[in-house]
Design brief:
The complex is a heterodimer of chains A (872) and B (117). Chain A has 28 helices and 21 strands. By secondary structure, chain A is an alpha+beta fold. In chain B, 50% of the residues lie in helices and 14% in strands. In chain B, a hairpin with a 6-residue loop joins strand 2 and strand 3. In chain B, helix 1 crosses helix 2 and helix 1 crosses helix 4. The chains are: A alpha+beta (872), B alpha+beta (117).
Chain lengths: 872, 117
C-alpha cells in the first residue's frame, strides 16, 4: 500500500521493461501487416522492411527507458536540492524541528533500550522458552515466590510440557593468601546448564547424576570470576579449588555474559532427595523451567495451575491459599522494577508524542506562511503531486537529520543511565551493566518518527495545495480559510503539548519531593561516618569457634584507633536484606497458619547499637554478660513493644522464638531495615554470642572519613582469623544512595523530560502567538487607528494565550492525576494528589506561558497603524 | 531511406510533441497509428522517425500530458497500448499551437515582407 503510494509519488506509473518491449514489438507487427497489405510482399520481406524502417529497436527501447529513469532521478535530486535550500533559508524552523524531534526520538529510544536490556539481560540464553514458577499466597505477596520441595517434585513428575530447574542461593568463600573472598553462588539441579543451553567458554556442565549426597564436589565458574581469579587460564578445568574449606573440581566455565538465573561467581550441583517430595510447609526452591519442544506457554501455565490445585488437595492445611504460577522469565528480571519501567515508558512516550506534535505544529506554521508561495507555484503549473513531494522531501530531510541527532542523544542517554546507577544496585539488574542502545528499539523509534513527520507534512500539504488560488493570492494568504483552519489545529496541538509538559512536570516534582524526604528522612541510624561490610565464616566451623572469633574480632575492632564503636549484626539497616524469625507471645492465642508473627532477627554484639547509631529507649542493650549459659536476653524495638504491651513496660516480658523463651531486657528505637518508603517492621536483637552466625555484617562508626578505614578493618579481621572473608564494604551513605538512587534517577529523568517538553511547548506557544500577531497586523492597525489603546491590544493578545493555557492546564491536570497513580508506589511522604504540587506546577507553567505570550503581545501593542495599513 | 531524404522535411525541435498531441485530439490511438496518421495527413512528406516517436510518447506521458492504457484493438484479437490526451495535454496543445502560430507568422514576415503601407 505504502510502497504503491511512494511509487506513485516518485515515478508515476513508469512502465516495466517488458511493457516497453511489447509496445515496440506491436509496432513492428502492425508495420509488417501494413507493408504486407500494401505491397503484397511475402511476410518475411515485409518484416524485414518494417525493421529497416524502424531502425535500431534496441536503441529506441533504451531511449524510452531513459525518459523514465532520468525523470525520477532528476526530480529526486531537484527535490532534494530544493528541500535543502528551503531548509537552510529558514534555519530557525529547521533547527527547532530537528531539536524537538531529536529529543523525542532520543528519549524514546533510550528508554526502550533500557527496558529491553532489563527484560532480557542474558540474550545468549533462549529466554522466550524459559519460565519462572512461583508459589505465592495473598498473605505474603509480593515478597514470597519460592516453591515447596513437594511442589518442585510434582512439577518434575507431572508437567510434560516443561523441564523444571531448581535453584538455591549459595554463598561461600575462597581462601586466599591475603585473606578470604566471599563468593556469591547458586546450587542448581545438575542438568540446569544443558536445559538452558548455556554456552561454555571452556569445559562443560555437570553430569546428570552430580550433586548426590556424599558424591564428588563439582563447581562451574562464571566467566568474570574465572578472568578475575584465574587469569582466564584454560587449565583451571578439572583442577581442584577450595571453597569454604572443601575441595571442588572445576568442570567448566560459563561463557561471557551468561548467567542463570542471576549474576554469580560459582555454581554447584544439588540433587533433591526423594524424601523431600513430601515437604509442603517450607518453601525454599527458586524454580525455573524450559518449555519442551512440544510445550507452549499456555500448556505450561495450565499444567502448573493443575499441579497447584493437586497440592492443595494433597495437603490442604499447608497449601490452601497458595497459588502455583508459570510466568515468563522476563518477569523474574523485572519483578522489582516493573513500576519504574512503566513510568519510564509512559514518560518517554509522552516526550516522543510531544516532539512529533511540535514538529507537526512547526510544519503547519511554516505551511501557513508559505500559502502564498504554494499558491503561486500551483498557478505556474507545478503539479499537485510535485508540490506534495517537495514538502515530503523537506519533511524527510528534517526527520533524517533529527533521527541522526536523536540516535546520538539516545546513545549518550543510555550510557549516562548506565553510569548513573551505583554498581551495588546494578548488580541486581544484570542487564544494566551491558546496557546499550538497542538496534531494534532504535529502528522502531526512527521509523515511527519518520512516519509521523511524513504524515504531518503530507496531510496538511494535501489540504494546502487545495486552497483556492484566488483568495490565497489576492490577500496575501492572510485570512484565507486554510490559514484559519491551520491556526485551529495548531492551537489544539499546543494545548496537548502544554498539558503533556504539565503531566511530566507534576510527576517530576512529586518524585523529587519524595526523594528529598527519603534523604532527609530519619532511618533511625547514623548515615555519616559509618562503614558496613559483610563477613562470612567458613562452613563446618563449630559454634564455639565462631563465638570465640566474634568475641575476639569485637574486642580488636573496638580497641583500634579512630574507630569510635564497632558492632556485628545479622543485617544492615536500609539494606533491604534481612532475616526474619517467627515468634509467639505467651498468653496470646497462636496466630492462624500462614499468618504467624514474625520480626527481623538481629544477632548482635553489645556495641552494635552505638556503632550503628540507634539508642535504647528503656532497659538495656545486649551486654557482654549475655553468653551461653546466661539469661536468654532479647531487645525489641519500640514498634514491637507498643504493639504487644501498649502503655506498659515491656521489660521482663517473655517472647518465644522457636522453642526457647527469651526475656525482654530492653526496648530500642526503631530502625528502618528496608527503605524509608517501606513499612517499619518488628525487630528483635539477641546476642551473637548465644546464637552465632556464619554470615553477618560488621558496622563501624568512625571519627574520620569512613572510606579511609577499609584497609585497617580488613587487616584487623584477617589478623583475628584469616579464614574469615570480608565482602563488599560500603559507607552508610552508599547504602542510602543505593536505595534512593533509582528513585533519584527517575526523578532526574522525569525532570529532564519535563524541561524538554516545556521548552517544546513554550516555543510552540510563542510561535503561535507571534504568527497570530503577524497575521492580524492589519486588523490590529485598524483597531489602533480607531482609538484602541496599546494596553487594550496587549490584554487582547495575552488573553488569547492565557485562554489556551488554561484549557491545557485543565487537560494536563487530568493527565497528571492519572500519571501520579502510577507513581504512588514510589512516593514517600508525598501523596499522589498533593494539592501544593499541582497548584505550584500549574502556576509555574502559566507564568512561563504568560512570558512567552507577552513578547509578541508587546510587539502587537506597538503596531503603527500607518505601517500596518500600508503593508497591504 | 536516404534515397528520398531530399524531399523529406526535418522536424523542428519540439514540434513532434505538438503533432502527437494534435493527432490525439481526435481520439485515443496507439503508437503505430499516430506515426501513420502524421505521415498520411502530411501526404507522406513528414515521415516520423520511429526511433524518436516512442521516447516522445513516453516523455509526454511522464509529464502528464497523455495517459496510456492497454486496450483491445478493434478488429484485432490483441491488446495494444493506446494513448489518450489529458486535460493538461489539451492546455499544452493550445499553448504550443499559439507559440507555433507566432513562430510561423514571425518567420513568414521575415521571408515574405509585406510592402509598406
Amino acid at each position: 500500500m505504502l510502497r504503491r503510494l511512494l511509487a506513485r509519488i516518485w515515478r508515476r506509473g513508469s512502465p516495466s521493461d517488458d511493457e516497453i518491449a511489447q509496445e515496440l514489438q506491436d509496432h513492428l507487427d502492425l508495420e509488417t501487416e501494413a507493408l504486407g497489405a500494401l505491397r503484397q510482399a511475402t511476410p518475411s520481406d515485409a518484416r524485414f522492411a518494417a525493421k529497416r524502417r524502424f531502425g535500431n529497436v534496441a536503441a529506441a527501447r533504451e531511449a524510452v527507458r531513459e525518459v523514465w529513469h532520468w525523470a525520477w532521478f532528476d526530480e529526486l535530486t531537484q527535490d532534494l536540492r530544493h528541500g535543502v535550500r528551503a531548509l537552510v533559508r529558514n534555519p530557525g524552523y529547521s533547527i527547532a524541528v530537528v531539536v524537538t524531534l531529536a529529543m523525542g526520538i532520543g528519549a524514546a529510544a533510550a528508554t526502550y533500550s533500557l527496558s529491553h536490556a532489563i527484560h532480557n539481560p542474558f540474550p545468549r540464553l533462549p529466554q522466550h522458552k524459559l519460565l519462572w514458577i512461583t508459589q505465592t499466597s495473598a498473605a505474603c505477596a509480593p515478597d514470597c515466590t519460592e516453591v515447596s520441595p513437594a511442589g518442585f517434585a510434582a512439577l518434575r513428575m507431572r508437567a510434560p510440557s516443561m523441564t523444571p530447574i531448581g535453584v538455591f542461593s549459595w554463598s561461600t568463600l575462597l581462601r586466599e593468601p591475603s585473606g578470604s573472598v566471599s563468593l556469591r553462588g547458586f546450587r542448581v539441579t545438575p542438568t540446569a546448564f544443558q536445559v538452558i543451553e548455556a554456552p561454555f567458554a571452556v569445559g562443560r556442565g555437570f553430569p546428570n547424576d552430580a550433586g548426590q549426597q556424599g558424591g564428588a564436589k563439582l563447581v562451574v565458574l562464571s566467566y568474570d570470576f574465572w578472568v578475575r581469579q584465574f587469569g582466564a587460564r584454560a587449565s583451571v578445568v578439572d583442577s581442584i579449588i577450595t571453597l569454604g574449606g572443601d575441595p571442588y573440581r572445576v568442570t567448566g566455565v560459563l561463557d561471557k555474559d551468561v548467567a542463570f538465573p542471576m549474576v554469580a561467581d560459582v555454581y554447584a550441583p544439588f540433587m533433591p532427595r526423594v524424601s523431600e517430595a513430601s515437604i509442603h510447609d517450607s518453601r525454599n526452591y527458586s524454580v525455573f523451567a524450559r518449555l519442551t519442544p512440544g510445550g507452549t506457554m499456555a500448556t505450561a501455565a495450565a499444567e502448573t495451575r493443575a499441579i497447584g490445585a493437586q497440592l492443595i488437595r494433597e495437603s490442604p492445611t499447608t497449601d490452601s491459599g497458595w497459588v502455583l504460577r508459570a510466568r515468563p522469565m522476563a518477569d523474574f528480571h523485572t519483578d522489582d522494577v516493573s513500576i519504574i519501567e512503566t513510568i519510564c515508558a509512559v514518560a518517554a512516550l509522552l516526550v516522543f508524542v510531544a516532539g512529533c506534535m511540535s514538529a507537526a505544529n512547526l510544519g503547519l506554521s511554516r505551511l501557513a506562511a508559505r500559502q502564498h508561495e504554494l499558491a503561486l507555484r500551483t498557478a505556474l503549473g507545478v503539479g499537485r503531486w510535485r508540490l506534495v513531494r517537495h514538502l515530503l522531501t523537506e519533511a524527510l530531510l528534517l526527520s533524517i537529520v533529527a533521527s541522526a541527532l536523536g540516535a546520538a542523544l539516545a546513545h549518550w542517554g543510555v550510557h549516562a543511565m548506565r553510569d548513573a546507577i551505583p554498581a551495588s544496585f546494578a548488580a541486581f539488574l544484570p542487564g544494566w551493566a551491558r546496557l546499550d542502545l538497542d538496534l531494534g528499539a532504535m529502528t522502531f523509534t526512527l521509523g515511527m518518527a519518520v512516519l509521523a513527520v511524513a504524515a504531518f507534512a503530507v496531510l496538511p500539504a494535501l489540504r494546502a495545495t487545495h486552497t483556492d488560488l484566488k483568495s490565497a493570492l489576492s490577500d496575501g494568504g492572510r485570512a484565507s480559510t486554510g490559514a484559519v483552519r491551520s491556526t485551529r489545529s495548531r492551537a489544539m496541538l499546543i494545548v496537548l503539548e502544554v498539558s503533556t509538559a504539565l503531566v511530566l512536570l507534576t510527576g517530576a516534582t512529586l518524585l523529587t519531593r519524595s526523594v528529598r524526604n527519603m534523604i532527609t528522612g530519619n532511618a533511625g541510624v547514623r548515615i555519616d561516618h559509618t562503614l558496613v561490610m559483610e563477613l562470612t565464616m567458613p562452613s563446618g566451623i563449630s559454634d564455639s569457634a565462631m563465638i570465640d572469633f566474634y568475641q575476639h574480632v569485637d574486642a580488636n575492632l573496638n580497641s583500634a584507633p579512630s574507630i569510635r564503636a564497632a558492632g556485628i549484626a545479622t543485617s544492615t539497616p536500609l539494606s533491604n536484606s534481612f532475616a526474619g524469625a517467627v515468634f509467639q507471645i505467651p498468653g496470646r492465642s497462636p496466630a492462624p497458619k500462614g499468618h504467624a508473627l514474625s520480626a527481623i532477627d538481629q544477632h548482635v554484639t553489645p556495641r552494635y547499637a552505638e556503632a550503628s547509631g540507634f539508642h535504647i529507649v528503656s532497659g538495656r542493650m545486649i551486654g557482654q554478660q549475655d553468653v551461653r549459659g546466661g539469661l536468654h536476653a532479647v531487645v525489641i524495638n519500640e514498634m514491637m513493644a507498643e504493639a504487644f504491651w501498649p502503655g506498659e513496660s515491656a521489660i521482663g516480658r517473655i517472647v518465644n522464638i522457636d522453642t526457647t523463651s527469651w526475656t525482654v531486657v530492653g526496648v530500642s528505637s526503631n530502625v528502618h531495615h528496608g527503605g524509608l518508603d517501606e513499612p517499619m517492621r518488628y525487630t528483635m536483637y539477641r546476642s551473637i554470642f548465644q546464637v552465632p552466625l556464619q554470615n553477618s555484617v560488621i558496622a563501624v562508626s568512625t571519627s574520620g572519613d569512613p572510606a579511609m578505614m577499609r584497609d585497617s578493618v580488613r587487616r584487623i579481621v584477617a589478623r583475628t582469623d584469616p579464614s574469615a572473608a570480608l565482602g563488599e564494604m560500603m559507607t552508610m551513605e552508599d547504602m542510602q544512595a543505593r536505595h534512593v538512587s533509582p528513585f533519584a534517577m527517575m526523578a532526574d529523568m522525569l525532570g529532564v523530560l519535563a524541561v524538554v517538553t516545556i521548552t517544546i511547548a513554550v516555543v510552540g506557544l510563542y510561535g503561535l502567538i507571534a504568527y497570530g500577531v503577524a497575521q492580524r497586523t492589519r486588523e490590529l492597525g485598524v483597531r489602533v487607528a480607531l482609538g484602541a489603546r496599546p494596553r487594550d491590544i496587549l490584554t487582547h493578545v495575552v488573553w488569547g494565550a492565557v485562554r489556551l493555557t488554561i484549557v491545557a492546564l485543565v487537560v494536563g491536570l487530568l493527565g497528571a492525576a492519572l500519571f501520579a497513580r502510577l507513581l504512588v508506589a514510589l512516593l514517600y511522604r508525598v501523596t499522589a494528589g498533593d494539592p501544593g504540587t499541582y497548584i505550584a506546577v500549574s502556576a509555574g507553567l502559566l507564568t512561563v506561558a504568560l512570558i512567552a505570550a507577552l513578547i509578541p503581545s508587546i510587539r502587537a501593542a506597538r503596531v503603527d497603524p500607518m505601517v500596518a495599513l500600508r503593508g497591504s | 531511406m536516404p534515397a528520398r531524404s531530399s524531399d523529406r522535411l526535418e522536424l523542428l525541435q519540439g514540434t513532434l510533441d505538438m503533432l502527437i498531441l494534435k493527432t490525439l485530439l481526435f481520439g485515443p490511438m496507439h503508437g503505430h497509428g499516430i506515426g501513420t496518421s502524421i505521415r498520411q495527413t502530411t501526404g507522406e512528406s513528414l515521415v516520423v522517425d520511429h526511433g524518436s516517436l516512442y521516447p516522445a510518447l513516453h516523455r509526454l506521458q511522464r509529464d502528464g500530458f497523455i495517459t496510456s492504457k492497454w486496450e483491445k484493438a478493434p478488429g484485432k484479437n490483441r491488446e495494444l497500448k493506446y494513448y489518450r490526451l489529458t486535460a493538461a495535454g489539451r492546455r499544452q496543445l493550445t499553448r504550443a499551437e499559439s507559440r507555433w502560430n507566432d513562430l510561423v507568422h514571425a518567420i513568414g514576415r521575415v521571408m515574405n515582407p509585406l510592402p509598406e503601407g
